[in-house]
Every structure is written in C-alpha cells, then in structure tokens.
C-alpha cells in the first residue's frame, strides 16, 4: 500500500534521519513516454516533468536532504528534433524566470553545470542571474546539468590541468584524484550518495561518471512525471537498506 501524500510532509517514520543521503542525483527519464501514454505531444511530458522536479526539490527541503543534482539536458540531446530542443531551451528559460523568486525565498542555491556557453544567450543570461542571486543561500544545493556530459567535463578539466603544466605551474606527480575533482563542474559539491533513474532504464548515460564511482543506483519503473513523494520515499527506503562498503569488506 502506498502512503498518502498528506502523511509525507515530514520525514516518514520508517526512514532513519541520520542515514539519509546528503546528495541525491536524478536522471529524469521517461517524459516523452509519459506523454505518449496519454496521447499527448512529447513536450507535454517535459512540462509535467518540471512539476515533478519542483515537488522533489521541496521534498528534499522538507526531509533534510542537502543537495539535489538533476540531468536536464545532455550534450547528446542536441540530436533530438529541432522543435523539441527549442521547446526545452525555452522551457528552462521560462521556468527560471517564473520560479526564481520562490527559489530565493526557499533558500535554494541553484547552480547550472555543463558547457553553458553553447546555450541560447537569453537562457545563459537568466542562468547567470539565478546563480548570482542564490549564491549565498544555504538551503538545498540544487544543481542542474544543462548541456552537460561527463566526458566533456573530464576533457575540460584535463585541458585546464595541461595548460597549467604548460605554464610550468603543475608537475605530473601533483596530479591526483583530489586535483581532478577540483577541476570538475561539481567541485563545490560532495559526490552523490544516491542516483535515481526513472522509466526502468539502468544506464548512467554520461552523467557524473567521475563523481558516481561509489554512488548507490536506484531504478524506478515510473516515468519521471509520476515520480512523487511516495516514490522518493521508496527510493530512500531502498538506499537505507543497502550496505555501502566503498570497496572494503
Ligand atoms: C528525459 O525524458 C527528459 C529530458 C531530456 C528533459 C528533462 C527536463 C525537465 C524535466 C525540465 C527541467 C527544468 C528545469 C528548469 C531544470 P525523455 O524525453 O528522454 O523521455 P523518453 O525517454 O520517454 O523519450
């Protein structure tokens, strides 16, 4: 039996508040299929996906989860039909304009990660504004992968390190895991403890490959727009049932 939504404003009693993930990552998959199941255009699925994301962010705040990172647009997503790509870019821009004051009020710090310079200029502008006005917020650390690809992220980190080496500022033996992590887009965040992927797919799809070396993966069969508080509760319950060994016995 699923728990009614009204009971889920505070942390469900069967979850241990001391063993919650500090950082949850999500691959919001299945918007298109959600729409197709309802004989709606795919873009309606993306609109519904925004509502699910808002609710998850609110839930992280209510339940005391400090960081949420989502994959909104991958470096591979440019290969979708032009109409859908343009719709998504406009949707991100509209949602940011619409929600920014609420994000500020709720104390959320929003960051965008990815090759942002390739996004439409109007979107880049609102992204810069949103990051600046929430920069000192200490509530949920909300990170959005937009034109993000983990391999691209690692490539740009390597380029910056090679550049430092070329200038004589870096020696080969100084390159270690910590230094590489410091040159990733996510350098201010802890690694995710839990990755949620919806729509039953069990792939990483080039998301946070370095950061998720020891992340617990939870695959939900629901399409992203249907991923609600009871579904998040189930994901956290599964997470708390696992033994994290980080390669040890
Ligand atoms: C994957 O479903 C979803 C996306 C590529 C877009 C996700 C974006 C949002 C939910 C909006 C987020 C908004 C902001 C402002 C951060 P899919 O299209 O791959 O679905 P399918 O696999 O069923 O085709």
Automatic annotation (TrEMBL):
This protein's record includes keyword Nucleotide-binding: no
PROSITE patterns per UniProt: UPP_SYNTHASE (PS01066)
Active-site residues, as the UniProt record annotates them: 29, 77 (proton acceptor)
EC number: 2.5.1.-
Record note on cofactor: Binds 2 magnesium ions per subunit.
Residues bound to substrate: 30-34, 42, 46, 74-76, 78, 80, 197, 203-205
Keywords for the protein's UniProt record, in alphabetical order: Magnesium, Metal-binding, Transferase
Protein name per Swiss-Prot or TrEMBL: Isoprenyl transferase
Phylogenetic classification of the source organism: Bacteria, Bacillati, Cyanobacteriota, Cyanophyceae, Gloeobacterales
